[in-house]
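To: structure desk
From: M.T.
Subject: fold request, one chain
Message: Could you run this one when you get a chance? Sequence is below, nothing fancy, just the single chain.
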Amino acid sequence: MIKIKKIKIYHLEYPLKNFVISSFGLMKSRPALLIEVKDFNNNVGLGEIWCNFPSDGPAYKFNLFKNIFINKLIDININDPIHVYKIFNSIKTIFVQSDDLGSYNSILSAINCAIWDLFSKNKKKPLNKFINTKSSNDINTYASGINSNDAINTIKKARISGFNSFKVKIGLNNNLDLKLIAKIFKSKLPNEKIMLDVNQSWENKNALSYLTKIKKHPIYWLEEPISALSKNQVYLKLINSSPVNIALGENIYEEDTFDLLIKNKNLNFLQPDITKYGGISLPIKYMNTKNINKVFLHFLGSGVGLMTSAHVMSAINANGLLETDFNVNPLRDLIFKEPLKIIGGKIKLNSKPGIGFTLNKNTIHKYLKNQFVK
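Reply: Done. Structure tokens follow.
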């Protein structure tokens, strides 16, 4: 059991020189909402609230956390990380009433991750070993955030950095990008994997036709071809008939949907984001099932969420691939006192308790927009 005595939240922002381009708009900066949760043993757990879009989202979620969530955590006894969902169940109605369950889910996910970090530190174990004593000490990654307008050049740079798996954003203006896809696969080396991310931009009526046109390429997976709001039966029909492996899951907001997808025999890649929904507690519920090797965690944010995701992937699917944004982002690489390094396309986990890192207050000071302590 742990008891929380102090909580901090930081709103950070790194302006981008080269914008990240997706089918739904430009990303002009890299934000981060980080929480520190300290218990009466003076251990500190770290969590990250998903806040990439829209640009006003981080400030809004910062205030929600400060004004609503913090008071529910101080001086509360927590017996298990999943207990945080019971603690906050009493305020869930507010977010249902305001049609804002997304904010509720992402904030609660960050709290859940921070509490897992805290529990593992109290046990003096690395988070991955706390979850699964047989965990690997490293995890393979793939380079993501690759814009279609400079994909070939970016893949070359990522290759030089040690990556051999790459995910390219396509689907701008609801197009198929046949010429770009052909160029990417022409430049692909034999040992490499190529993934394509549509970011929900195709219309369902065109999706199967598009997939058929590109099936000649050895696409490792094609991500989120249609809207995540599509009914389950619509998505399942597409998954079951697609000639290309489909991946999805970063925008799942119901455990029943997660359960339905992980059990589907034709879906090989399920991508929950532990900073968006379910925290760590959701995927590890399936850790001992035969389908856990389908879980390839989605993540695009700061080093806190990345390292937390790396520990969870190490514990539940050591042979999987973890998403790693290849764009310049000091909130990822310099957020810890010890620089975060990806060598040979792998993240190597250290043997320190929890996620194994402490925040670099110099980086926080440099990119700080707001903070609150209680």
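Reply (cont.): The radius of gyration is 20 Å. Let me know if you need anything else for the meeting.
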